[in-house]
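Re: weekly structure request thread

Next one in the queue (259 aa):
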Amino acid sequence: GSTGGWALVGWAADEGLRRASAQPPVLPGSHGRVSVRPGIETGDLAERLDRRVRSCAQRIRQHLALELANIHLRVVQEIVFGVGCAGLSQLLDRELEALSLLATAQCDQAVRDIIDEVAGPVFGAPLAEGVRHRLAAAVRWGLADHPAGRELDRVLLVTSTAGVAGLSGTGALDALAGFPGAKRDEVLPPVGVALSGGCWQRWRSPGNDDPNSARSWAQRALREVELELSREVSRRFEVIRLSLGAVLTDAVDHGILLA
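Done, posted below.
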C-alpha cells in the first residue's frame, strides 16, 4: 500500500537507523563447495530470471509513481495552505529524501527476493545465508562488466528549471543527508534524488512567491522525477538480470558456485 502524510518521512528515519546497525557474524555456507543440483537447464533459468526481474521492476515503478502522486498532492496543499513558496524547497527536499530511501529499500528487497527465487532451485532452497552473501557479492562485482552497471552510482538532482540532471561518480551519494556513510552490504548502490542548490535559491528569493507558478513548477519537477526514476529502476534491474544471469550460467556450466 501507499504511505500517507508524514508516514513516509517517519518510515525513512527508522529505515536509516536499521541500516546503520546489523553486522552479522560468520554465516553458514560462507566457505566451502556449493554444488549445482542436477537437471538445471540454462534456458529455463534465463527465462525464470527474466520474468522475475521484469515483474519486480514494474511493481517498483508503479509503487514509486503512486508515491510521487501523493507527494504532489501534499506539496500543492502546503504551497496553498501551509509553508507557501518560501518553504517549498525544504518540503520537497525532505519528501525526495524519504522517496530515495523507499526506492532504495524496495530495490534492495527485490534483489534479495530475485536471488532467493532464481538461485534457490539451482543450489537448493532455502539458500544458506552465507551462500546468499557469496551470490550477492558475485553479482555486485559483475555489475561493472556492463556499461549501464558502471553508471549506477549517481544522484538525480532536480534543477531550478524543473528538470532532472544525473550527477555520477563515487561520492555523489555521500553528499546526501539520507545516506550517512554506513557500510552497505547490498548488491545495488542506493537510489538518490535531491534538489540542486538552484532550487533553494529560486524559491527563497522574495520575487518568487506566486503560488500558481510554484504549483506548476512542482508538478513539472515531480513528473520529471517520475520519468527519470522509472528509467533508473529499469536500468538497475536490467543490469541485475545480466550479472546474476552470468553468475548462475557459470555455476551451471561448472557444476559448482564459482563465487
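Strands lie at 154-158, 164-168, 192-195. The chain has one domain: 38-254.
Next request, please.
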